[in-house]
Design a protein that fits this description.
Distance between the termini: 38 Å
Biased composition (Low complexity): 26-53
CATH superfamily of the largest domain: Kelch-type beta propeller
InterPro entries: F-box-like_dom_sf, F-box_dom, Kelch-typ_b-propeller
Protein name: F-box domain-containing protein
Strand content: 25-35%
Radius of gyration: 24 Å
Number of domains: 2
Helix content: 10-25%
CATH topology of the largest domain: Neuraminidase
CATH architecture of the largest domain: 6 Propeller
Structural class: alpha+beta
Number of helices: 9
Domain F-box: 52-98
Shape: globular
Number of strands: 32
Region (Disordered): 1-54
């Protein structure tokens, strides 16, 4: 696979959770022994006993490397054994490395871009991300600029690639599809009104309910439905280029996938996994049948050719549409929600795990009543986006009565077992569930409740762009459902005291 077709690394050391866990266990053995020996004597003698321990003779570079293999709790315990160790364990350089380990190089590099980045306290930032409890919304739409802004739509795609927002397709009033592509450069001022540029490519053909993911500096688009109800199963590659004379351009080309491809569909879920593959699940196929199959797209060294293969495992998520897939780093991808074959709105969570050399689906079982406010979790047409800290931010969607939502939830699976040995995983502890599911407070601008919008983050994972969707509208004789398409762009910012 060419270097151009690899994603920016959100998991920088490219080790699986199991590898890091085994390294942490072996590294933790020697340090824990020292800690236990020191704690068995009085505080006055602990320094003398620890001074005779082999660990006290290690260089700081060696200790630094060991600490980077340990979980946070062990690092904090290590810091309590002596002043020297406390100074090392609380050093800003160590905590920046921990952030890189847990969040990825691209996130940390993006956080350091602003002018005040030198003032960052990485330990404080890490703690705030773990305790995140609110977001702030900023409106980025210009109400007076109708011609230079994408028209209202839903079930489109919105991606952040190479510093640009890229919007394609979607459905609009009258059930018509759109075939336009828009791009906007974000820069480092995320709260400013963006200037959109329409790209007159003519391809791919108009559609909605397609999936589009970022792999390296490329966009990979699959499937969708046009306004004649025809399901697609074509795969496209998009790439942004910048020219001094003609500005920004985005070129699309059809990807050669050979004779094997997933059945035509729309309203499916898709994401990038393993930094180099596209994963899709479910959707609405021919004759309105909801699908429950899983497919992966592998690329050759030549990015103009790819290979689709179906992944058949048992158990696996039931057939559905309007759900989400979100890669959370390492070997795991999260599937959440959607609408089932009986038109029921779902609230189940599945992990797609690719560790140990093979792929499998694992369901996480939990009771909604054990989660504060959890009865509102079932939804379809929501967004689920990976944010800073490896968590998933879920926003909006609609319930089984088509009541649209405007709530923000964080799904945190960091406390789940790193090695999955049992199926399914049952989460019964209310404390664990409270850490796994957390509803966030929303400040600032109040967007309308919406569903089938789209969202993406910048490279830091701190800023999310959201555009469009279906919102409640005034009832007119021609609008019996009381719905309208929205053309609003707004920014969701994680509230952190940097």
């Amino acid at each position: 696979m060419s270097s151009a077709l690899r994603t920016r690394d959100r998991n920088p050391n490219n080790r699986s959770k199991e590898q890091r866990s085994s390294m942490a266990e072996s590294s933790n053995t020697s340090i824990t022994t020292t800690i236990n020996c020191g704690s068995s004597s009085s505080s006055s003698s602990s320094s003398s006993s620890s001074s005779s321990s082999p660990i006290t003779h290690m260089t700081e570079d060696h200790l630094f490397s060991i600490l980077l293999h340990l979980p946070i709790e062990s690092i904090l315990s290590f810091s309590m054994t002596s002043r020297r160790f406390r100074s090392l364990a609380y050093s800003d350089s160590l905590w920046e490395s921990i952030c890189r380990r847990d969040w990825g190089h691209s996130c940390v590099d993006a956080l350091k871009l602003p002018a005040d980045a030198k003032q960052l306290s990485w330990k404080k930032l890490y703690q705030q991300v773990c305790q995140l409890d609110s977001v702030t919304c900023h409106k980025l739409s210009d109400p007076d600029d109708h011609e230079g802004f994408p028209r209202p739509r839903a079930s489109h795609s919105l991606n952040f690639v190479s510093g640009f927002l890229v919007l394609f397709g979607g459905g609009c009033e009258g059930g018509r599809h759109l075939d336009d592509t828009w791009i906007a450069y974000s820069g480092n001022d995320f709260r400013r009104i963006l200037k959109w540029q329409k790209i007159n490519a003519g391809i791919p053909s108009g559609r909605f309910g397609h999936s589009c993911v970022v792999i390296g500096d490329f966009l990979v688009l699959f499937g969708g439905i046009n306004d004649k109800g025809i399901r697609q199963n074509d795969t496209w590659i998009g790439q942004i280029t910048s020219h001094e004379t003609c500005g920004m351009t985005l070129s699309w080309r059809l990807l050669d996938v050979g004779s094997v491809a997933p059945p035509p569909r729309g309203a499916h879920a898709g994401c990038c996994i393993d930094s180099k593959r596209m994963l899709i699940h479910g959707g609405i196929g021919l004759y309105g049948l909801r699908l429950g199959d899983t497919w992966a797209l592998d690329f050759s060294e030549n990015p103009s050719f790819g290979t689709w293969r179906e992944i058949v495992t048992h158990p696996s998520p039931s057939a559905r549409s309007g759900h989400t897939l979100t890669c959370i780093g390492g070997n795991q991808t999260v599937l959440f929600g959607g609408r089932g074959s009986g038109y029921e709105v779902l609230d189940d969570v599945w992990l797609f795990d690719t560790s140990e050399g093979h792929s499998r689906w694992v369901q996480l079982l939990f009771e909604l009543q054990n989660i504060p406010g959890g009865l509102s979790l079932p939804r379809v047409g929501h967004s689920a986006t990976l944010i800073l800290g490896g968590r998933v931010l879920i926003y909006g969607g609609e319930d089984s009565y088509r009541h649209r939502k405007d709530d923000f939830w964080v799904l945190d699976l960091s406390s789940m077992p790193s090695s999955i040995e049992m199926q399914p995983i049952s989460v019964t502890s209310k404390k664990l569930l409270a850490n796994m599911w957390r509803r966030l407070k929303s400040k600032g601008y109040k967007p309308n409740c919406r569903s089938f919008h789209r969202a993406c983050t910048d490279h830091s994972g701190r800023y999310l762009y959201m555009f469009g969707g279906m919102v409640d509208g005034l009832l007119h004789s021609a609008e019996t459902a009381g719905l309208r398409f929205d053309g609003e762009l707004f920014l969701v910012e994680l509230v952190l005291q940097l």
